[in-house]
Amino acid sequence: QFKGGPVESSDRREMDGAQVKTEVDGKKETAGGEVVHLRREIGLLPAVSFIIGTVVGSGIFIAPKGVLMNSGSVGLSLVVWGLCGILSLFGALCYAELGTSFSKSGGHYTYLLETLGPLPAFLRLWVEFLFIRPSVASYVSLAFGRYVVESFFAPCAAPTVLIKLVSILGVTFVVAINCWSVSTASRTQVTLTFIKMFALVLIIIPGVIALAQGKTENFQNGFEVASLTLDRLPLAFYNGLYAYEAPLRTIPLAIICSMVTVTIFYVLVNVAYYTMMTPAELLRSEAVAVTFANRALQGVASLIPILVALSCLGALNGGFFAVPRMLFVGAREGHWPPIFSMIHVRRQTPLPAVLLLYPLVVVMILTGEIYQLINFASFARWFFIALATLGMLIHRYRFPLHPRPFKVPVVIAVTFTVVCFFIVGLSLYSDPWNTGRSFILTLTGVPVYYLTVYRYRLPHKWREIFNYISTQLQILLEVAQQEVQTY
């Protein structure tokens, strides 16, 4: 199970003096009087902000173009947005049952581990680290860079190189915050969440006012189905579902309220877009909110790109805060290299899990394009979401007496699971290149699992190299295993 290698915390007594231990009342303590552990520093407001900040990310400013492109008409695109909201609500309720049934930390990884076993759980970690999180972070970063740069070059096209450079700067800022302090990351998220909600309201109000004044020409013949093809529909849903990013663990009432609110907001934002832009103009726009602002908010048009860019930072921050903790738990369970289960001895942050994602994100920013990255990441993401809810149904059948403080109606769980598998399967036909690559990369995790976890059969020389690299990384990053159990 990725055995050996990293120097255990008790063997590292010269790391800035912070690792000198004494026994006080049976507990290990550092020279500064505190044990090394991942602190619980997220209060109610930051927790709510992380949920909202994850749901309301950059998607509503990126995805409208992708939804319209693949649905074929204004009316159908609005239907897709509504259905995506309902589907996300169903999924979030399923995850509420999973979260209350399995209180152990680790989120999606833990749910798969408890319901379907170690191989699906490992594959979830594999694809999360290898391309899901880097893809998600890179297309959110590219949206950030585009909205920052476009405002300076409009109406001309912004230089691609400059967009990618600004995108890298944005993700670097977020990584630095999450490496520095949990409390700083949470305070940043609270601030950015309020900003992004203000941005949505600023878009909705002028759109609703114009609609009330009779500006409805872009909604005429809104349900033309001539350009709709079944093979493109899954990609429309991928773009819409990407915007929702349903919360994976919180109380059912909060889920219902938040998802209904977000769905209403998203539909109204799209109505506002179509009120001010024709479908052709929206498809031509590389930064939809900027084009909207130039039409509807001429007095404060320059403010919208800034608000959207900050919203993208909020989505990035929420992702980098949550996902490394999945890798952290996987490493703690022996399904991932032990270095990922270590935390900084002074900052008390999961530094390796945050920092080692960074190079992959930068590579994808340099080589990828937003809508290709969405399709690329969405296949594996929604496949494993469907697997988790399928595992929930199987676990219900196998262990009917297992405590479940909240049970989602079975019709909702079955509907969500079937729809997800259908969309995922059809997307292989719709976009075989991007979804096919995603599928193949997912399967590459199977031999890795059997070589490194199920049966530890790496050649001895490889083990020595792996152990040496792990040890040097631990020393370089000044990280150690937790010294108290927090789970």
Automatic annotation (TrEMBL):
InterPro entries: AA/rel_permease1, AminoAcid_Transporter. The keyword ATP-binding does not apply. Its main location: membrane. Pfam families: AA_permease_2. Residues 9-28 have a biased composition (Basic and acidic residues). The chain crosses the membrane at residues 42-63, 75-98, 152-180, 192-213, 251-274, 303-328, 349-367, 373-394, 406-429, 435-453. Signal peptide: none annotated. The keyword Membrane applies. It is found in: Membrane. One of its GO terms (cellular component) is membrane. GO terms for molecular function: L-amino acid transmembrane transporter activity. Residues 1-28 are annotated as: Disordered. It is a multi-pass membrane protein. Keywords: Membrane, Transmembrane, Transmembrane helix. It comes from the Eukaryota. PANTHER family: AMINO ACID TRANSPORTER, CYSTINE_GLUTAMATE TRANSPORTER. This is Si:ch73-352p4.8. It comes from Sparus aurata. The gene is si:ch73-352p4.8.
